[in-house]
Structures are given as C-alpha cells and as structure tokens.
Structure prediction request, 640 residues.
Amino acid sequence: MNINEIRSKYLEFFSAREHMPVPSSSLIPGNDPTTLFTGSGMQPLIPYLLGKEHALGNRLVNSQKCFRAEDIEEVGDNRHITFFEMLGNWSLGDYFKKEQLPWLFEFLTSEIGLDPHNLYVTAFIGDEKNGISRDTESAAIWKQLFADKGIEAAEVAIGSEADGHRLGMQGGRIFYYDAKKNWWSRAGTPENMPAGEPGGPDSEVFYDFGTAHDAKYGPECHPNCECGRFLEIANSVFMQYIKQPDGSFMLLPKQNVDFGGGLERIAAASNKDADIFHTDVFEDIIELLEKFSKKSYDDSRYTRSFRIIADHIRAATFMLGDGVRPSNTERGYVLRRLIRRAAWHALKLGVADKDADDSMLSRSAVIVIEKYKDAYPELDGEEAYKTIFGEIRKEEVQFAHTLAQGMKEFQKHISGPSKEIAPAVVFSFITTHGLPREMVQEEMRERGLYTAWEKVDELLAGHKETSRAGTEHKFKGGLADTSEKTTRLHTAHHLLLKALQTVLGPQVKQRGSNITQERLRIDFSHGEKMTKEQLAEVERIVNEKISEALPVTHSTLPRAEAERLGAEHEFGAKYPDLVSVYSIGPKDATVDNPQFDKAFSIEFCGGPHVGNTSELDGTFKIQKEEAVAAGIRRIKGVLR
Ligand SMILES: [Zn+2]
Ligand SMILES: [Zn+2]
Prediction:
C-alpha cells in the first residue's frame, strides 16, 4: 500500500471515531532515539495532557512531519531515514486502553491488511520499587484481540534488552519489558521523574519480516532485537500516573492516550519488505536515478548512494517547503549538508551535471512534491515548486564549485614533499563549506593527501554538539515551547502582524513564523524593502499597544465565523471546522464579550498567549528586515 493511501485511511479511520484533525506544524525533531514514536508528537500537547481544555475537543488525530538531524550519518541501511511522518492520535481524558488497542489492531489488520500472525506486541513489566504494577490490562486486551483472529497469544516476561537476547522468543506473542523500553515520561524512567510529572506505560507493535536472526546482536532474537527481523511500527503511550512528592505514583484523575505510528514503516510492513526504500516515494526516485545512471539499486556498490539521495532529497524538499534555506547556521546548515551529501552521491552514481538547467536531484524533488502536495499544501503551487527546484539546483551547482575550489586550496597547504594536511584545515574545510566528511576523506585519498583523522573527528564532535543544540530548539513550531519568554514574544508577534498591515496595507499576509525564547521571526508577503520610516512606525504601533494594556482573549469559533470576522490565518494552512482564535483589545473586552469588531488583532491561533499586553513587559525592537524569497520579507524582533 502506498504512503498517501495509508495516511488517508488512518485519518479517515480516526475521524470516523470522532477525532478532530490537528494541523501538522513545522518539522519537529524526533528527540528520543530509544522510543521512536513518542515524545516528539506529544510535546506541544503537554498542557492539554495535564488537563488544559483543547479547542478541538478530547479526541485528536494527525500526521506530523518529523525530522531527525542526528540520523544523517546513519542513512544508508534499509531502515534509517532523516524525515518521516508520524501518525498520531490522542485521547485527552477520554478513551483509554480498551478502545485504543482494539482500534489500532483493527486499523493495522483490516484497513492496512497486515497479517496478525506477523504482529508482536510489548507491555510494561512493572516496577516494584516504585509501586507501579505490571500492565496486565493491556496484555489481556491484546490476548483477546489475537484470540479473535484464532491466534493463541502467550505472554513472556523479558525485562531489559540484554534479558531479551538471553531469554529469546519462548513462543511468545506479548512481551513484557522494563521501564527503559516500555515507560514514557518527559524525564524518562519512573525514578528520574520529578514530583508532579505525569507518565505511564506504553505498548508497542512490532512487525516480523521473518528474516533470520543475526547472532552478532546477541545469542537469541526478541522483538526489541536490532537485527532487522522485527520493526517497531507503532506505540501507544498510556498517561496513567502522576508522581507524588513522596515518590509514590498515583493514578491521574483524567487518563490520556498518546499514540505514534511510523507511516513509512507501516508501508514497509504492508509490502512485507523490510527495505523502507522499496516504499513508493523512494522507489520512484530510485527508478529515475537507475534510468539515468544505468546503475542498479541492487548492485551493492551503489545501494547506499541511491538510498542517501532518495532520503536526503525528500527531507530537503520538506525543509524548503517550511521556509528553510541553505546557510551555515542552524537549520540552514542541516539543509545544506543534506543537499551536498546527496550531490556527492549523485557524482558517485555518475548522474551529476553541473551545466544542465536541471539535475537528477531537482527532478527527484519534483517527484517528492507531486507525491505529497495534496497532503501538504506548503509544497503545492507554482511558487513552492520554483523555490524548491531552484534552491536545490543552486546549492548543487555551488557545491560542485566549492568542491573544485577546495581541492585546489588543499594543494596550497602541502609544503614540500609531504602530502599531509593539518587537521584544523580539514576541519574548517568540512564545516565552512558544508562538505561531507566521508567525501573529503575519499577525495583526499584519491589525491594522495592525508591527515590525522582522529584529530579532525575530535574537532567535529565539538562542532556537532553546538549545532545540534541549535537545531533542537529551532525545529519546534510556536506551539512547542510554552515558556514565558516565548509566550510573550508570541503575543508580540500578533501585534507585529497587525502593525505591518496598518503601515504597509491589508494585503500583507503572514507566510511563515518561528518563535524562540530569544526572538520572534515573521515572514510576510511584501514586494520591496521596508523604509526606515516604515520600520519605525511599525515599532511605534507595537509599543503603543503594549502600553495600552489591552486584554488578550481566547475563543473557539466555527471556521466560517472566524473567517467572516477577518481573523488572520497562515496562507496555505488547513484548518478544522472549529478553530481557536485569539483577539487583542479593545480595552474592555472579556472572554464572555470579546467584541471582535473592535479588536486590534484577531488571529487563528492555538496559543498560548499572555492575558494582557502589559505583561509583555518591555520595548519591542526590530533587529533585522530582509528578503527571504521573491515577494517575501522577513523581520526578526525582540522584547527588551
Ligand atoms: Zn534478532
Ligand atoms: Zn499565534
């Protein structure tokens, strides 16, 4: 089954069970490498999981774009990808285990058609020390679900991953693991949780591809074995407990479900093929590359290059769609690395032509756009197409140039008969020019040059940490970070948009935004550079509204009603029938009487916001105004 079919079926299946669709926000990093499908989708929903009312109701569903920068170097085997879609569904104090597990089982077996004989599940073994009981409730539900399919599902207690390699399958179908594998909280295992922190057991589903176990991973195979026989495809987290100040665990008054499923992995399972690159979108790219390179994906000398190009171009396309551009900092640097790594592997396949108008990489991006544009409107339209195609091509040409220049540069560092290059020179070459390490190594080897690579790697390890710290914060959408500073900047962001429309005209629309604890950023449609006077006037209006101490009110309205009121919404975003709206002003507005017609600003927005603009507590200052694309300007601003 292809990726679009699975996504649609999933959204339909849960919509039929009264789930409201939540819009997919900007790329969110998958931040927990041990449990693949939790943590990243959940973070923005934490306030709601703790009892805050969600405007859309108690049952939510979506498919979320996720990106994992730390996996870039690992791409090349049959399962690692940097970008993936995570299917999510949430119960906010509504349904629990006895609904979630049967729904999931029905979705996987009846809708997707997975053979239940190939499904294996896990549950939490319990934690005596912390007084948390074994999750026999989930196991009993699974047992019945398998029994209904004529499968006798035996329970097996494992414990840790090492225990699994010692104990093996033992004819089991339901496997109990410890907190490292089957417990979720933001802080990790029960003992690491602070008082007041919610958490609970989770239950994973694994697909068995039936391949032989590889003994290099351990003597025996078990569902959490990394040998490739089993693939984790889904995980339901049951937020069941809250830690007490005395260290004990109490049941939450309202229990929640947080589900995450790997869309590409479910597609691989539906193909009964462990190679994720045999799923439709990758396969289309690989076919194109095979045709023009006259090389085969099955030729083990080239498989890795095919996979890297297919993965990296798909990820790069989505990043470009989200407004990221290649650069030497933060997300831009990650994007640059993705495109340059793909470009180098295109060279290896012999399909790079730096003089052509298009290239295999930009044409691969078009395959991605065509595949996803219906589900992700930010990839749709002439402008998105031109930007993505053009940026990839531009970066690729620049890369070819840098590579040639760089190799010349290296020659300069060779003095006398020695062909040794100082590690610092090699390091700066990799980091400043964004050239892949393995590429530099190979190119040097071909020219008979060498360096102390362990020194280079030491320098790179330090560099990676700094750039990773950058990406972790900046990949999150506005919703993800609910700290006070970010909340204040979010309200300032609403004031700023309205001020821009006041000064430049009502045709100005928001085209992107990003808020961190330090600054806000808005991309908006406007054809020319703003004048000094215009910038000063915008700042003045924002600061005037801050000093007027206007109330900020939150309402939930039918979408049509909000549109009629002229509430601002982001171009191209899809919204549900019932929307959350924030309005700022007038002075005597209240939640019961928001007086939209007199408000200074109204926006479709999930919040959170301060209650009154006086809480912004500072002066708004524009730091930078610049172009990001044709007809799109960007402003960065701070409160100080
Ligand atoms: Zn194994
Ligand atoms: Zn907002």
